[in-house]
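Retro notes - structure team

What went well: the batch runner handled both jobs without manual restarts.
What didn't: labels got mixed up in the shared folder, which is why I'm recording both outputs here explicitly, each with its sequence directly above its tokens.

Job 1
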Amino acid sequence: MRLVVVGDELAAGAGDPKGLGWVGRVAARTHAPTAATFLTLAVPGETSTALGARWDEEAARRFTADTDNRLVVALGRADLAAGLSIARSRLNLANILDVAESRRIGTFVVGPPPGRPEDSDRIEDLSAAYADVATRRRIPYVDTFSPLVTHEQWLGDLAAGDGLLPGQAGYGMIAWLVLHTGWHAWLGLPDDAA
């Protein structure tokens, strides 16, 4: 099994002193009967437009005909800073998911986590839009915003850093949400594998 994770610096675990991020933590807790290879393809500050333009070619270079190829789309908050409309962000994700479906690539989507408090309403709207796109396509979606927006440990982790990137505890919380929101079912593994 090959799992390609595309996204921004949050997918790469930027700011995590352990260097694991949420992807490393999820990989460590994914016990498949055959080896699962996680390949993280992250671009700092990437919008959904830029992600949509690059993911297919980059993922195709890592997939093979004899492996179970999977795609994890880890969406960040860059669309807001770039001034993209919610409609554009929705369309970008829809296009990614539709192309993946046409290539018969199983897809899993992780939404943007909370960032600066002044951006909360906009991140909430963006996350809800992404969730709707994924749900309409029956693709698992992990809402990282709602459970973390008022979570004291998450907020403390952000405050201890630059206010945008979590540290070790924050990435652990995202990993927990991924592992407990359909991850094992999506991979065809028993839930007790966590």
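Job 2
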Amino acid sequence: MTCYIDQLNTWYDMKTHQEVTSSRLFSEIQNTLGTFGLNGLDRLLCFMIVKELQNFLSMFQKIILRDRTVQDTLKTLMNAVSPLKSIVANSSKAYLSAITKTQKIWTAYLDAIMKVGQMQILRQQIANELNSSCRFDSRHLAAALDNLNK
């Protein structure tokens, strides 16, 4: 029940608007687990993202392959928005019709996308912490790595 504010790199509670956690959390994890532990946490999040996407894809395929009305609705939508080079005529009607007929897909889609997005934000924060600790702890090696990357 939190909201992430990208400019502040902070999560806030949706109801109380109080700060739940910020990038300082990852500094504390870095101090506690070390670089290898933080890197392991990043890899764990990677595997969790892959597993979440695999689960979503299998569930999504089952829903679409079993439900003929969903298939027909998506085909109708595809025909309505083709060709892709022009503006869709009567777009609100075409999209609203497709959304209402495929309502049961969207909750699972939203859950999966939200989980993956949250894990990606966590990975981004971990990468920032690892990068800053690298620059602080070993300036010469970080500069050499930047030069090699360029």
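One thing worth noting from job 2: The chain has a mean pLDDT of 86.
We'll revisit the folder naming next retro.
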